[in-house]
Amino acid sequence: MIYRAGNFIEATEDTPYLQIGEHKYGKPILDRAITFGTVMEDAIKIGLISMDSTMRSNLGVGMPIDLITVRRDEVKHDIHYRIEPGEPYYHDLRERWSAALRKAHQNIPRPPYGG
């Protein structure tokens, strides 16, 4: 990403992704799951999970989701896809992620504090 002043931001091993726009709800997912070595297909999946979390917590963010991937040192995109409401993969991802979160929280013991 290049700013007007001419300085730029790039992904590095210390900062493996750049997020533009609303970030407070989905960013923790990216911070926990994305590494510099994450393969593109997994990065897309994690990014969509992050978007789902943002949409569930912020009514100002919603469908459609425009997905585009551009590999380093390329000038053309690999993937350009618009995810509309009801799109089968995204719907399945949302349902599986919600179920996985419920199961994870149920499998963690309750805190030993108080009553």
Please provide a written account of the structure.
There is one protein chain. The chain is mostly helical and about 120 residues long. The chain contains 3 helices and 2 strands, in the order ααββα. The protein has one domain. The protein is about 40% helix and about 10% strand. Strands 1-2 form a two-stranded antiparallel ribbon. The termini are far apart.
Layout: helices, strands, pairs:
Layout: H1 27-33, H2 40-57, E1 65-69, E2 79-83, H3 88-107
Antiparallel strand pairs: 1-2
Helix pairs in contact: 1-2, 2-3
InterPro entries: Ntn_hydrolases_N
Give a quick summary of the entry:
This protein has helices spanning 27-33, 40-57, 88-107; strands spanning 65-69, 79-83. The protein is mainly alpha-helical.
What structural keywords apply?
single chain, 115 residues, two-stranded antiparallel ribbon, 2 strands, 39% helix
Shape: globular
Number of domains: 1
**What is the β-strand count?**
2
Q: If helices are DSSP runs of H or I spanning 4 or more residues, what is the number of helices?
A: 3
Q: N- to C-terminal separation?
A: 52 Å
* Order of neighbouring strands in the sheet with most strands: 1-2
* Strand percentage: 5-15%
Q: Please bin the fraction of helical residues.
A: 25-40%
The biggest beta sheet, please? 2 strands, antiparallel
